[in-house]
């Protein structure tokens, strides 16, 4: 069973909801709309959508949005916030079987690379089949994490204390992050796994998936992606 199946419980989700500011979400959606050149009211597929921060922002701007996620808790939070978004509880590996189509697909919040390599390739192909344009926000590119791989990190957000301890699996090119979330007397411990690809590798995967052109940016200000950039924003077009 994939690690993310039971990772995103209320403690983990509450932490991430508190850790990201509304201003960051606005900047990310501004970027998406700028590079995607969407018509008003266009259809957007947000996968995985988590607690729906991107879907909700897009819906407020008049877009028709479908958000898909496996976390029941996250989707419950999203549904409570807005009912005119189509919220779907499903595994990202089931995307193709759902037959969803859109004008744009987004995979934001560093949510790519959760699967094994073959399944990551299939996921990108499923996204290419669903939408002619895709925006991927990938914080685990080799250029971003390997120059200065952090060890233990501690943060508090959303009323939840978080400890993250990172290790790199050289044999499989994976980032393993052992998380501890604590709120009062409650504690959740779980390990997140993300495959690490270079920007060139991700570009080749997107081309193999069916996209013809890929642009790479370092952040929402559209700066050039380079060694040491803290995230990779890849914009792929069929």
Kindly summarize this structure in a few lines:
The chain has helices at residues 10-19, 22-36, 53-60, 72-81, 95-98, 117-130, 142-145, 199-209, and strands spanning 43-46, 64-69, 86-89, 104-107, 133-138, 152-157, 160-169, 174-183, 186-195, 213-217, 232-237. The longest helix is centred in the first third of the chain and has 15 residues, at 22-36. The strands form 2 sheets. It has a 7-stranded mixed sheet, sandwiched between helices.
Would you kindly provide a written description of the structure presented here, covering whatever features stand out?
This protein is α/β, with parallel strands linked by helices and 238 residues long. The chain folds into two domains: 3-140 and 197-237, Rossmann fold; 144-192. Helix content is 32%, strand content 30%. It has eight helices and eleven strands. The protein has a seven-stranded mixed beta sheet, with helices on both faces. Strands 6-7-8-9 form a four-stranded antiparallel beta sheet. Strand 6 (152-157) and strand 7 (160-169) form a beta hairpin. The mean pLDDT is 96.
